UniProtKB/TrEMBL annotation:
NCBIfam families: small_GTP (TIGR00231)
InterPro entries named among the record's database cross-references: P-loop_NTPase, Small_GTP-bd, Small_GTPase
A Pfam family reported for this protein in Swiss-Prot or TrEMBL: Ras
Tagged with keyword Cytoplasm: no
Database matches in CDD domains: Rab5_related (cd01860)
Keywords assigned: Nucleotide-binding
Name of the featured protein: Uncharacterized protein
Gene: Rab5a
Highest taxon, organism lineage: Eukaryota
Keyword set includes Nucleotide-binding: yes
Species of origin: Phaeodactylum tricornutum (strain CCAP 1055/1)
MF terms in GO: GTP binding; GTPase activity
Amino acid sequence: MANHPGSAANARVHHFKLVLLGDTAVGKSCLVVRFVRDEFFEFQEPTIGAAFLTQTVQLDDATVKFEIWDTAGQERYRSLAPMYYRGASAAIVVYDITNPDSFTGAKSWVKELQRRGDPNVVIALAGNKADLETRRAVEFEEANAYAQENGILHLETSAKNANNVKSLFIEIAKTLPKNAPQPEKEAFPILQQQQETRNCC
């Protein structure tokens, strides 16, 4: 039976856990703050552990509420990442288009998610800092080919000018199954940072 706008099925809010992963200083926190509050801060301090934020996306046929874990990129926090991506329905792996090492790091995160994450996790690869075109070191075609080979989404974004930030989350929301059982509220990791500001760009 088809759903129609305004029906009870469409009024339901679908909750999905989403985690951001990637090397330090690629702009994970800036992407989240731009998406959630439409703000951008040029200089922000590094995330400690992880920060938790929420935001809702309205699709034509559903409302999706993302419960977002923005993880720290520093190497010393890497061992904590499984606590955050465990049970996640979606993951955004961020790299900096001006930093080829961060793209190598992103590939490592994708491989880890494919090996240890939820088997149905929706993975999106985000090439951030697309406003710095003159300093580009990772070609769009290269990253896009990698994403296609791995069956994951790929967009280039700019937290600074907001380009493609909302689109990134909308594309993920469209891809997520809306008829899946909703996850139980889990006990969140104790090492976290609840503040929504002062996060690393």
